[in-house]
Amino acid sequence: EKYSIDDYILDFENNKTLIYAADLISASISNNQTKNEYVKLAAEFILTNSRYSTHTQKMLANKILNPNSELKSVLDNNISKLNEFSSNKYYEKIKDLKTKLSIYPYNPILLVELSRYYSIIGKEDKSINLMKQAIHLDKNNRFVLRSASSLFSHYNTEDNEYLKYIHKILNSSSLLKMDTWLMATEIAIANKLNKNSKYIKNGIKFIESKNYSPFNITELCSSIATVEHYNGSHKNSRKLFKQSMNNPNANSFAQAIWASSVDKLIKIENPNLQVSSGDEAIARVNYHKEHFNDAFDYSVKWFIDQPFSTEPAVFGSFIASSLTKNYKNAIDIASAALISNPNDTVLLNNIAYAHALDNNLDKAKDYFSKIKLSLLNDDSKICFKATKGLIAFRSNEINTGRALYHEAIIDAKNESNKVLTLTAILNLTREEILFGSMEEATHFINLVNELPVQSEVAIKVLKEDVLDLYKEKLNDNNNKIEI
Known about the structure:
Layout: H1 6-14, H2 18-30, H3 37-48, H4 55-65, H5 78-83, H6 87-103, H7 108-120, H8 124-137, H9 142-154, H10 161-172, H11 180-192, H12 200-209, H13 214-230, H14 234-244, H15 250-262, H16 279-288, H17 292-305, H18 311-323, H19 327-337, H20 345-357, H21 361-369, H22 378-394, H23 398-414, H24 418-435, H25 438-450, H26 457-477
Helix pairs in contact: 1-2, 2-3, 2-4, 3-4, 6-7, 7-8, 7-9, 8-9, 9-10, 9-11, 10-11, 11-13, 12-13, 13-14, 13-15, 15-16, 16-17, 17-18, 18-19, 18-20, 19-20, 20-21, 20-22, 21-22, 22-23, 22-24, 23-24, 24-25, 24-26, 25-26
């Protein structure tokens, strides 16, 4: 069923920016109206300003203007693109935006874009201050408020300072009561703050009114569905998640993928659905389908689209190091993310882990030494000990490595974290096998075999790899131990 895209056309006509052009194109694809002349103008606008466009925006613009040609992905050479990441190109874009702002100092869209680039190069204070300026200029602008919500969620602190700030701003906006997109944002942030949003009832009324296209309520359905899930109203949650998938965007698609992983009764009927900027969701779908090379490729696309975020780089480096055994890929994507997050403990740990697995011990120790212990949370401390144990094993400090792994396993058990417990056990078992400690390895192999089948994909694959390595070592030793 087609829905009008007139509102998107009007927005683009009144605001000639990349954001509104991309929104128009996304709406046109979702509603099968890609031949509209205004849509073509939006696509041409994106390609004319390709220097500032994201890879997804350029890909969709090419799709509009060249519908019959085979699209050449912007990320044909994903890793080479990652290697091009440097702060220099971001400083160039910052310089250009500053020049434009000297001419148009009260343009909130330019301020939002400048804030984004400062966040990419890791300048948190400047990024936050610029976003606050944009809000001050126009707190009734959907793009400004949603961009601010995303930024403040990214930089949120333990005391929720930024989330509280943007939640207050959202509730002061006159647009909130009538805009389904802002309502979805407010409900999601209230949920993160463990607050009951007063807009849930209105949101449900909007959804049930049938006055909005599926695309315009997809995030509203998703946000309320998430609240219902945490409140234990699983029937309502499933119904709303299903409705959110009638015409999803990247956020609602990714949330539905998450929901399907925690509630097996939520089914994603078309997991390969092409969604504008849906790289995160597609990466996760491919991971669960065990298409790990595709999962990594989409992690790279996800990262290129959100270079200020650690999540795609952490996910991609984990896939590359643990599942595809491509240590260079793991190091490249995590290193690219260090531009925005130079002190991130997970990124540094993942790089050290990949170097250690590749037996580049000097580099592994170098990156490991950069981890600031004061920044580690409980889970990170467990991973820290395990990686330190791996480096010790590969440095032939077997007793030290064994002790560190045992500590990590005990800590993970105390935290009731089954995934980290099993991951540490399997990594230790692999190292015992490689060192030739078959008696120690056999103890852990028997322990792992006694455990129930794991649904977590990574544990399943790692277990298979360790069992294969164990059998191979037994055959090499002509050992008769049965497993």
